[in-house]
Amino acid sequence: MDERELEDLISRTALLMERYQRICTELGQQQSQLSAALNGLAQSLPEQFRASADAAVAGLSRESTQVVKQALLAPVGAYEQQLAASADKVGRSSDALAAEVKRLQMASRGVLWKSITVAVVSVAILLGGATWLGARYTSEIERSQIETQLLRAYNRADVVLCGKEQLCANVDTRGKGLGEDGRYRQIRPRP
User: What pTM was estimated for this model as a whole?
Assistant: First the structure.
């Protein structure tokens, strides 16, 4: 995997994590809104039911109104208790869901930071390896260039093997001496 693919992978991972966090936040907000709406409805429903019942029995006689009211108030009270219990249960579920969303957000942040750390360390290792290899091969290339120059000079020189492990050269005796004390002479090129 080269550096560009690694950067692309990191970028896509970061975008995915951001999108995931945004969705989690939106879900938490929607859950809170729905919980608040349900609580409001649960609290207003008994009052609306009472008003509706009052309006329905307003036309009845006073005695029958009292009897009907008493008959309706008992189930309404039980219904209010059930609604309150349901609203409480929904509230606890909403809180649990919000806590789970928050936990998932924290976990996703941890994964994101770990991914970024691994990517940075990997890039650093790759750069270190590339630098080391570059320095090593630069010295090898320089050594090979010197050897190449030496072989080219040897190929142009008029040198032969004479005897066992002995070199003989066609030396330019008229040339100027070179090196220490002028003891070296240039070798004539091959004809």
Answer: 0.39
